[in-house]
Structure formats: C-alpha cells, structure tokens
C-alpha cells in the first residue's frame, strides 16, 4: 500500500557495525521528516543487530532479520517488499547523508519517476577524498530516447545510494521480474 508523500528508505546490512550508527543518525536527522527506514539484515555476525536494536525506540524504523544469508541484491529486493512510501531511496550501511538530501529530492522530483543526487566519496574515517560522483559523468549529448537508454545501460554513472524513485518504477520492475 502506497502512502502519499512518504519516503521509504531501503537500508540493507551485513556486518556493518563500523559505519551504521553514522548512517542511521544521518537518515534520522533528515530535514524531511515523513520517512520510514526499512532495515533488512543479512545474517550479520558482528554487532550490527545490536546497533539496530539500540534504535528500536524509533517508530520510523522497521527491522527485519533474514534467517539465512541471501546476498546483497536479494536483500535489497526483500527490503523493497516492506516499503510503503510513494517514493523509495536505497541506502548502503556505510553512507552518510547530507541533512537535506531527502527534502531536496522531494522538492525536485516533480512529475518524474526518478531523480538522483551527486555524492562525495569519503575514506573509512569520513575524510573527503575530493572525488565526487559527478566526476565520472562523461560528456555526452542525449538528443533522443535511444541515446538516453544506451547511456543508462552501458555508461551509467548513477549509484543506487543516490537515487529516489517513484513507486510506479517499483511496480513496473516487479512486473518485469515476475514475467521472466
């Protein structure tokens, strides 16, 4: 069931204790407040589950723990099953989000089904590496749908953790997956 203006954040974890607190704090401190965080853990063997339990007081968080390790891709698919929002974002366990990330995306998505942001790469201590994701963007002219499709399939510079997409994309993707 879609909930209008709700942004679902699909966060998957596996042995992510090192960075998880910073990631959860950065999501919970978003200026856009109408969010839910769906966390699916893929059988972590470190303190990841303990950290998530520390946040159990947060109504915005729904925690699911897999019974067996299913891998990154299926884990994200499982998280998507629980998302109720009109819009969905992916989050990796080692990201740190700017406090206005979701707000800016909501303000700018308009009638589009997908929007993405830039990102800045950091090292294990959170120090900026002076490399932004936009530096990977190639100079290209996209004058027709075929060029756009080719670029997105073969030269894609958009990473999952920078996306926000509408429920319509999720529903269409699920139909495609079911038919294969």
Element layout with pairings:
Layout: E1 3-13, H1 17-28, E2 35-41, H2 48-54, E3 61-65, H3 72-82, E4 85-91, H4 101-109, E5 114-116, E6 120-122, E7 128-132, H5 145-154, E8 163-166, H6 167-179
Helix pairs in contact: 1-2
Contiguous low-pLDDT stretches (5 residues minimum) are: none
Number of DSSP-assigned strands:
8
* Class by alpha and beta content: alpha/beta
Strand order of the largest sheet: 3-2-1-4-8-5
Largest sheet: 6 strands, mixed
**What does the average pLDDT come to?**
85
Strand content: 25-35%
Which H/E pattern describes the elements? EHEHEHEHEEEHEH
Question: In a nutshell, what does this entry contain?
Answer:
With about 180 residues, this protein is an alpha/beta fold.
Describe the protein in words.
The two termini are 24 Å apart. α1 runs parallel beside α2. The protein has 6 helices and 8 strands. β6 and β7 form a beta hairpin. The relative contact order is 0.18. Helix content is 34%, strand content 25%. The protein has 180 residues and is of the alpha/beta class. The protein is globular and about 50 Å long. The chain has a 6-stranded mixed sheet with strand order 3-2-1-4-8-5.
Which features characterize this protein?
180 residues; alpha/beta; 6-stranded mixed β-sheet; two-stranded antiparallel ribbon; 6 helices; 25% strand
């Amino acid at each position: 069931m879609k909930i209008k203006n709700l942004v679902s954040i699909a966060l998957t974890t596996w042995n992510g204790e090192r960075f998880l607190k910073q990631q959860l704090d950065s999501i919970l401190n978003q200026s856009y407040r109408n969010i839910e965080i769906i966390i699916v853990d893929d059988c972590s063997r470190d303190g990841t589950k303990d950290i998530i339990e520390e946040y159990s007081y947060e109504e915005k968080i729904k925690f699911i723990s897999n019974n067996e390790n299913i891998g990154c891709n299926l884990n994200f698919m499982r998280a998507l099953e629980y998302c109720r929002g009109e819009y969905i974002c992916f989050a990796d366990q080692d990201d740190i989000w700017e406090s206005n990330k979701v707000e800016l995306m909501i303000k700018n998505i308009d009638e589009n089904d997908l929007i993405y942001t830039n990102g800045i790469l950091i090292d294990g201590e959170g120090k900026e590496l002076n490399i932004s994701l936009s530096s990977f963007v190639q100079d290209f002219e996209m004058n027709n749908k075929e060029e756009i499709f080719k670029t997105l399939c073969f030269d894609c510079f958009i990473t999952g953790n920078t996306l926000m997409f509408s429920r319509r994309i999720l529903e269409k993707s699920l139909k495609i997956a079911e038919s294969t």
